[in-house]
Write a structure and sequence with these properties.
Length: 148
């Protein structure tokens, strides 16, 4: 299914359709501040497995990012977010940056790579923001590019 969503004012009915796909363990392609990305619900093991299959990545070697709505949501998935790093990401995000942190205990263990790190992104893109807010939890994400 292809949905054309308004880039500045995403239509709520279309965003709800995207979230239905995510809640059914589906994988989506969506815009970020930089490139298009594949994404699934961060609660979906089936979605995670699909992402790995699409990208030809060993799940134990996967380096995915969490797409979060805001710093408050992101902080749940970061182990020991210091004031120094909180201030840094608060200045830089939302925006086209990924910050790598030691993963906290909230992230399902099956999504962790061997280094137990996770990339955190808070894109400014209106469509992405609408999807993550409606979903209520982060997207697990990787670029559409051929590289992992």
């Amino acid at each position: 299914m292809k949905l054309e969503i308004h880039p500045v004012n995403p239509q709520p009915t279309k965003i709800k359709k995207v979230v239905e796909v995510l809640n059914a363990d589906g994988v989506i392609i969506y815009p970020t501040d930089t490139i298009y990305a594949f994404g699934c619900s961060s609660n979906s093991k089936k979605g995670f497995e699909q992402l790995c299959k699409i990208k030809h990545i060993d799940p134990e070697k996967a380096h995915f990012s969490l797409i979060c709505a805001d710093i408050s949501q992101a902080s749940k998935y970061i182990k020991n977010l210091s004031d120094k790093y909180f201030k840094l990401i608060k200045r830089a995000l939302p925006g086209p940056y990924t910050f790598i942190f030691e993963a906290g205990s909230e992230l399902p263990k099956g999504f962790l790579n061997r280094k137990k790190q996770i990339g955190i992104r808070i894109p400014e893109n209106a469509i992405t923001q609408a999807i993550v807010k409606e979903l209520g939890i982060p997207l697990l994400s990787t670029s559409v590019s051929r590289r992992g």
